[in-house]
Every structure is written in C-alpha cells, then in structure tokens.
Amino acid sequence: MSTSKLSKQDLEKGKMLPLMEEFYTIQGEGYNSGKAAYFIRIGGCDVGCHWCDVKESWDASIHPLTLTDSIVHNCNEYPAKAVVVTGGEPSMYQLDYLTQELKNKNIITYVETSGAYELTGEWDWICLSPKKTMPPLPSIFNRANELKVIVHNKNDFEWAEKNAELVDMKCKLYLQPEWSKQEQIMPLILDYVMNNPKWNISLQTHKYMNIP
Questions:
Q1: Which top CATH class is 12-208?
Q2: Residue 137 carries which DSSP code?
Q3: Alpha-carbon distance 19 to 67, whole Å?
C-alpha cells in the first residue's frame, strides 16, 4: 500500500492530523480565560468568516499531516494538563483517538468549534462559536458548555439570541467583539450586556498580553 493511502487511512482514523501549529500559552477568551493550556490548531476550514484572523488555517493541504501520538507527547511535556483543540474547524476531523490518548494521560480536553460538523472526541469543555455562514448542527446545542458569539455588527445580537435559545440553560453565554472593530463594537456590547445580564463579555486578552 502506498504512503499516500496509508496517510489517508490514518487521517480518517484520527491517527494523523493536519497540524497548523501547537504551543503552550494562556487561554485568552471566554469562560476559561487566564488559564494555562496547550493549544493544538488543526488546519482546514470551509466556514469562511470574512473577519477570521487565522485565514491561513483554512487550507488543510498546506499544513503537514502529523502523527497524533507525537502531538499528544508534546502536550504532556508541559505543566498544565489541559489542551485546547481549535482551528480552522477541528470537527472536520475524527478526534476520538486524540482525546482518548489525552485522557489516558489525565489531560483535560477543551474544544472550540463552530458546530458546523458533527462533534467527535470526548470533551471536558465544549465552546460553541456559531457562524452565520454555516450554522451549527442541532446536535451540538445541548452539549455546549459555553456559547461564544463574535459581534461584528448590530445584527449579531439577534444571531446571538437565536443561538442562546437552543443551548442548555447551564451553558455560559458570551459576546465577544470582533478584534478589528472592537472600538466601535465594544460600547454596543457593554450596553447590551447591562440590559441583558444573562450575557457575559469575552475579550481576546491574549492579544492585549501580546502572546499567542
């Protein structure tokens, strides 16, 4: 069997992943902001948010297929036994093997997803960040621990409320200004949260700290 066929089989089984980058840092957004964690950014996304700040993650073919065992080994080298899997859109891939191996090493698993694809893997925390271009599948809503809606314009508040109606009542609700428009959007979010206190504000604090 050719190497390319073997790689394809390993990708389908989740034993290889198109790894864009991996790094140890401080979580900068949402409920777990301020906590140390190892980040795994998987290449590949067709959701197509025009304001995305990691568009280089969209094309999976430019990111090398990497052994999942190697990724897990790297995760385990750092003090904080917590991993955030993000993208791109990580749910495009089979992640059962990745999370199983992380769990075997007692590493806490977090995922950040748009919900556009069926979720695979075993997760301790699921951050759902829904996008209008490819709305979440119905199956994700009752599993989400956190709903994080990026606010780019006034219409996004209505989008946020539509998604908030679908998640579990225990789900944490966050509004986050799109980075390039935060000066214009932040006053709107402040006003909205004060009038709708079920919502919290999420900031990209890692950008303020100048860390990945």
A1: alpha beta
A2: P
A3: 9
71-109 per-residue burial string, b: 16 or more CB within 10 A, e: under 16: bbebbbebebebbbbbbbbbbbbbbebbbebbeeeebbb
Cα atoms found within 13 Å of the Cα of residue 10, Cβ hemisphere only: 16
pLDDT of residue 1: 41
Q: How far is CA 119 from CA 38, 116, 141, in A?
A: 20, 9, 11
Q: How many angstroms separate the CA atoms of 149 and 195, rounded?
A: 17
Residue 2 has pLDDT above 70, yes or no: no
The whole-angstrom distance between residue 14's C-alpha and the CA centroid of its chain comes to 18
Mean pLDDT of 110-124: 98
For 5, 12, 42, 89, the CA distances from 37, given in Å and listed in that order, are 34, 26, 16, 19
Task: Determine the Cα–Cα distance for residues 117 and 33; give it in Å rounded to an integer.
Answer: 25
Average pLDDT of the segment spanning 35-57: 93
Contacts of 139 (CB under 8 A, 6+ apart): 118, 119
Residue 50, pLDDT score: 84
Reading across the β-sheet that carries 125-128, which strands appear in turn? 65-67, 16-26, 36-42, 82-86, 108-113, 125-128, 146-151, 172-177, 200-201
Q: What is the C-alpha radius of gyration for the chain, rounded to an integer number of angstroms? A: 17
The position carrying tokens 């225990």 is 170
